[in-house]
Every structure is written in structure tokens, then in C-alpha cells.
Amino acid sequence: MTDNVKEILQGIGNGMKDAFAGTLKIYSMDSELSAREEKVRKKREEWARLKGRPPPKKEAGETRILFRIIQCCTFNGGVFWCSIAIFNNIVLPLLEKLTYYIVGDSAVQSLVVWSWLGPMLSYTFSALWVIPLFLLSKIVNSLWFQDIGDLAYRKSRGRPQMLGLSTMVADLLFSIVIQAIFLIQAMFVGLIPLSGMATLLSLFHLCLLYSLYAFEYKWFNMGWEVHKRIHYIESNWPYFVGFGLPLAVCTYLPQSQIVSGCVFSMLFPLFIISANEARPPRQLCEKTIRVFHLSVELANKIFHKTMRTPKSATDQSTGTVTTSISLSTS
Fold first, then answer.
1. Nearest Cα to 63, choosing from 138, 179, 147?
2. What's the pLDDT score for residue 210?
3. Residue 259: band (very low, low, confident or very high) from pLDDT cuts 50, 70, 90
4. Where are its TM segments located (predicted)?
């Protein structure tokens, strides 16, 4: 029993250490990536010279990791979050004082006017600014996150080992469905009528989910299918709880879901880099927790109703479909 607790605590500590350690390499990653690409370019030029062919054209300078991180912080923190803070803490109070000044000395009448004017202004601001910008941020962030993940992988491992097109599409769709269901599962767990236990269980789910988010860019480029990614997390859950814990705590503290999303979008690129630099333990944990089992089962049921699997096989460890999934034409 003591050894199991020690193993779990050690795994959590190693995960937290790797989550912070990877971010320390941000400033050196671009130079290392440039050195790797320059080495590859010279090899191509040498090969072309030996074959008597013209040297390959020099590719235009690509966007670097640090630049993408600055973009994420500027857009999500400097534009999105700051605009909400300015409206709530500066614009609304000024408009409230202006309303009291225009209405006059009648405090009751001023309160009545502001009781409908204040919410109307908040709803208008949300409808015309917050919601459109939130939807835009989801699209833009997903592109930037993918770019950061690809650049970090090229720096640490070189060329990605991509899956086949049909397998890649099916794997991506299946992974998105599992993550969406698991997020709902984390929300329901947080409703348990035991406040302390509910908070711990919800954080536990978020830690594993955020770790899956961060490592998925790396594992996807390594050619790992979704059943292997989930099984690996469930089998090494102490490490991945520790890895996702800092991000889970930072996003759990804000009361507003919008602010929580801004915090996530600013910090998540750092965890993508840490995941690419991390070396999770190869030895499986003695106590495997199949926390994704329910989400995988529900995702399988959804896919079986909307897709057909000609020669489907189910992975014994997670219950996921491991063969190709083709869209149904009916």
C-alpha cells in the first residue's frame, strides 16, 4: 500500500516537473529548429549536386514557435480578455454613473432605469462582441495550436509519421467525440453533492483531459491511433494527472467560463511544447484507471449509428474501433 502511494505521488511529481521543464526551452527551440532545417537543406543540396540536378529552391522563412505563442497571448489576453475586463470594470461603471447623473436626484428612479439598462448593455456587448470573438478564437487558436505542435515535433523528432488519410479523418473525428463526452463527464462529476470530493474528481478529469490535449499533437504525429493514446494515459495516469494539474488549476479558478477559456488559450501552447519535450514513463502503472471507458463506449455507440465498419475490430483495453471507419452513404 505504501509503495503504491509512493509510486502515485512520484508519478504526479514527475508529470508536474515535465510540465514546467519544457517551457524553459522556448527561447532555444527556434534556433534549434533552424539548425535542424539548415542541416536538412544542406543534405538535399549535396544529394542534388551528386545527382547532377539543380539545388532545391530555398524555402521562405516559416513562422516560429515563439511568434505563435506571442500571437496566442496577444489575441486571447490582450484583445479578448482585456476587452471584457475594460467593459465590465470601466465602461459599465462609467455608464452607470452617467445614468444617475442624467436621471437626476431620484435614487429610486435611477436604480429602476439602471436595472434594465445595465443588463441590456451587457447582453448587447456579449452578443455583438464576446460571442463572435469567442467563436473566432476557437478557430484561430486551433490553427495556431496545430502550428505550434507541428513545429515543436519537427524540432524534437523531425518528420511526422502521418496516418493514412481515411484513418486520420476517422481517428480525428473519434477523438473529438471522446473528448467532448469526457468533458461533459467531468462536468457531471463536479455536481456530486460532496463539494470537496466533487472538486477533486472534476480536477482529476480535467488533468487527464488537458494532458490528452497537449500530448495528442505529439502522438498524432508519431502515428499513434486514438485507442493507443487513451490506453497509455489510463495506464500512466499519475504522471498525466501531474502534467495537467497546473493548467487545470489555472482554468478552474476563474468564475467566468469565458475568462477560463482565455487563460487556457494563453497557457496551452506552453504545455504543447512541454509535451513534445517530455519523456513519459514507459513502465505502466500497477493500478490502471479506465476513466475514459464510459466516454469511449458512448462514442462507439454514436459512431456505430452514423458510420459502418466493414471489418471492425475492438481493442480489448479500451473498447475502441481499431480498423478503418468509413462514412455511411445511407
1. 147
2. 95
3. confident
4. 65-86, 123-144, 165-188, 194-215, 236-252
